[in-house]
């Protein structure tokens, strides 16, 4: 018992002593922890310096594969694989693609070699934006600067996507690529044009170069390395080095001149891709680099050049000045004494890629729904609503001119405008013949394209329907009746759309398969703001056009385009206008945003959701007892209403 009491007394005394001196205990513990932290920081810095000075001794190096790529168990994979696309006429690009594939395989990376002719870029390339693959394009330039036959569709699709404002400019953002072009400098005017254009189109869609474009030359006398094979081998070595750097997670090539743990590469980075995540590779200050690698900056002086951001202001200034001179009747220092001359300049100045002009005032273009149905996919709303086969539909107009300047015009007002016909008139027989020929030529380009159905391609060559709604006001064409008769004689049905500013022309118009009137607003003020008509008596013309439509003994349609915050609250006024024209059908469609333009203040906020369009139609149907909802096409953001007499007749 005495021993127990002594032990307890001892511990009690110790505890009391610690408590009385607790401040010193706390200080000692804090000092020890601080000292440990300082030692750890100093040790870490020492290890980093050693690792930076001698990469071979870095602890992390032992965990890397021999090719510089992170091991499979690493949390982040910087490069999932490499896809090599080739477009070849004589087999050289194909041979290079296989050689590059063997070299990539030696780095323990998955690799796939793809013939551009067997690939659908519309679906495939978009998937590469998040696949972490590196896409390599080896493409030759063939006769007259054209791509090889196997790469023709791939290049055409890429060009149209890059120049079509309806395709988002960030469509390929995230795709990483490199381009090696094959050409012959003996053909100076067309040397490596396909590779250069492909590089530009990819960049325009926000894809990111991993290194500058390279060019191989079949002309031994001018080849930078003595032959096209040597050019390719030199580029391949640089590509593999760049690929290894990407595998390690390096976003820019390192020149070895690093300061304070930050890599500072020498050379100039391409201005075009400086905003992209991976950017372009930078030129090394070596003769070999300058001999066979070029950037788009060097193309700035050519007709196919890419404009740098710094030069964009000057370019736009020249364009604005040119347009002002054109409107004043002056072009290239010459006075344009005729409206025909002005029209010719406007068409050359403004029309987008892929638009086929006919004569002096007509045009034809291939619709994207035509391309879709050629692949066995869905058609446009006309197919859903009326059974029109999109792949057999020709979109055309006999008049590019229009009397309105609508805020949602997908031409951004680049087509001519006017209130009367002032131009030299082409004969309807010529317009029809050239329209069909141009349409068929565009269809034939799909032969051999991946996914295109042979049976539908054959059917598409026989046009069965013509949508006279491409652009402009077709009813302005003085020979519109003869043109429509010719279409019907060829077994081609017709849907004609007019902007409701020519009531007398509507009355004189002979029956078409289906006659549309655009009803873009229901009040005078909203029509003025949305359609911006040129006629001073536009509202009376608008009402007279609707009355003229009611007098037509044929199938008629109102087309309502809903612009959010502009015309979606005018239900009662719309109902009154519908009672005035008594159409058989009413198509209600959400406005399509066509990109930014100085000619329009519309934004994506003005585009209604499909659910909002459906709600509008449901409310409108309550005000129109003779009409009901017949069908909808969600992809086109469109709903169809039909009169009871049409529904009863089936």
From TrEMBL:
Coiled coil segments of this chain: none
Residue span, Flavodoxin-like domain: 82-240
Entry's EC annotation: 4.1.3.44
Extent of Basic and acidic residues compositional bias: 269-286
Keywords (A to Z) from UniProt: 4Fe-4S, Iron, Iron-sulfur, Lyase, Membrane, Metal-binding, Nucleotide-binding, S-adenosyl-L-methionine, Transmembrane, Transmembrane helix, tRNA processing
Transmembrane intervals: 23-42
GO molecular function term, any single one: 4 iron, 4 sulfur cluster binding
Reactions the enzyme catalyzes: N(1)-methylguanosine(37) in tRNA(Phe) + pyruvate + S-adenosyl-L-methionine = 4-demethylwyosine(37) in tRNA(Phe) + 5'-deoxyadenosine + L-methionine + CO2 + H2O
Chain intervals with Acidic residues compositional bias: 287-304
Pathway in which this enzyme or protein is active: tRNA modification; wybutosine-tRNA(Phe) biosynthesis
Ranges where the record places region Disordered: 48-67, 252-304
Biological processes per GO annotation: wybutosine biosynthetic process
Residue intervals of the Radical SAM core domain: 386-630
Keyword Acyltransferase among UniProt keywords: no
Cofactor(s) required, per the database record: [4Fe-4S] cluster
UniProt record similarity statement: Belongs to the TYW1 family.
Function text: Probable component of the wybutosine biosynthesis pathway. Wybutosine is a hyper modified guanosine with a tricyclic base found at the 3'-position adjacent to the anticodon of eukaryotic phenylalanine tRNA. Catalyzes the condensation of N-methylguanine with 2 carbon atoms from pyruvate to form the tricyclic 4-demethylwyosine, an intermediate in wybutosine biosynthesis.
Protein name per UniProt: S-adenosyl-L-methionine-dependent tRNA 4-demethylwyosine synthase TYW1
């Amino acid at each position: 018992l005495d021993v127990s009491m002594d032990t307890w007394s001892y511990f009690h005394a110790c505890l009391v002593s610690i408590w009385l001196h607790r401040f010193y205990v706390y200080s000692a513990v804090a000092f020890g922890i601080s000292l440990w932290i300082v030692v750890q920081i100093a040790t870490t810095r020492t290890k980093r310096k050693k690792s930076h000075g001698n990469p071979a001794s870095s602890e992390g190096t032992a965990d890397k594969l021999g090719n510089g790529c992170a091991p499979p168990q690493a949390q982040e994979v910087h490069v999932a694989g490499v896809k090599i696309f080739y477009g070849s006429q004589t087999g050289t690009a194909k041979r290079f693609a296989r050689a590059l594939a063997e070299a990539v395989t030696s780095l323990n990376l998955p690799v796939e070699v793809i013939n551009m002719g067997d690939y659908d870029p519309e679906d495939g390339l978009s998937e590469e934006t998040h696949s972490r693959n590196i896409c390599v394009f080896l493409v030759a330039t063939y006769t007259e600067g054209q791509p090889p036959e196997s790469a023709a569709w791939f290049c055409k699709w890429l060009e149209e996507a890059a120049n079509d404002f309806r395709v988002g400019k960030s469509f390929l953002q995230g795709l990483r690529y490199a381009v090696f072009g094959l050409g012959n400098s003996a053909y100076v005017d067309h040397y490596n044009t396909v590779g250069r254009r492909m590089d530009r189109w990819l960049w325009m869609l926000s894809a990111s170069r991993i290194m500058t474009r390279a060019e191989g030359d079949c002309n031994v006398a001018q080849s930078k390395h003595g032959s096209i094979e040597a050019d390719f081998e030199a580029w391949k070595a640089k590509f593999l080095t760049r690929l290894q750097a990407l595998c390690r997670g390096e976003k820019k090539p390192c020149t070895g001149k690093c300061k304070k743990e930050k890599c500072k590469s020498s050379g100039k980075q391409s201005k075009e891709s400086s905003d992209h995540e991976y950017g372009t590779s930078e030129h090394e200050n070596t003769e070999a680099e300058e001999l066979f690698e070029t950037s788009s900056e060097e193309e700035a002086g050519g007709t196919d050049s890419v404009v740098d951001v710094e030069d964009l202001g000057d370019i736009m200034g020249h364009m604005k000045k040119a347009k002002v001179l054109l409107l004043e009747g002056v072009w290239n220092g010459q006075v344009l004494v005729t409206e025909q001359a002005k029209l010719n300049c406007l068409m050359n100045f403004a029309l987008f890629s892929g638009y086929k002009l006919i004569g002096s005032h007509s045009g034809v273009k291939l619709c994207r729904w035509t391309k879709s149905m050629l692949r066995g996919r869905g058609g446009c709303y006309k197919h859903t609503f009326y059974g029109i086969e999109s792949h057999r539909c020709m979109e055309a107009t006999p008049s590019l001119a229009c009397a309105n300047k609508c805020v949602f015009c997908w031409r951004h007002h680049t087509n001519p405008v006017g209130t009367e016909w002032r131009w030299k008139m082409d004969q309807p027989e010529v317009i029809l013949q050239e329209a069909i020929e141009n349409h068929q030529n565009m269809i034939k380009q799909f032969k051999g394209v991946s996914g295109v159905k042979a049976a539908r391609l054959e059917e598409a060559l026989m046009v069965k329907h013509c949508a006279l709604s491409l652009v402009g006001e077709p009813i302005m064409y003085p020979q519109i009746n003869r043109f429509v008769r010719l279409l019907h004689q060829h077994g081609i049905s017709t849907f004609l759309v007019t902007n409701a500013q020519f009531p007398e022309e509507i009355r004189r118009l002979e029956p078409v398969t289906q006659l549309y009137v655009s009803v873009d607003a229901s009040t005078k003020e909203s029509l003025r703001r949305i359609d911006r008509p040129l006629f001073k008596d536009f509202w009376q013309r608008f009402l007279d056009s609707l009355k003229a439509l009611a007098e037509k003994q044929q199938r008629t349609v109102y087309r309502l385009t809903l612009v959010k915050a502009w015309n979606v609250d005018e239900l009662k006024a719309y109902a009154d206008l519908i009672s005035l024209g008594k159409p058989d059908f009413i198509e209600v469609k959400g406005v399509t945003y066509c990109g930014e333009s100085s000619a329009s203040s519309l934004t994506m906020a003005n585009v209604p959701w499909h659910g909002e369009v459906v709600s509008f139609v449901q409310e409108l149907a309550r005000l129109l007892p003779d009409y009901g909802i017949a069908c909808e096409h969600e992809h086109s953001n469109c709903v169809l209403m039909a009169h009871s007499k049409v529904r009863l007749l089936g």
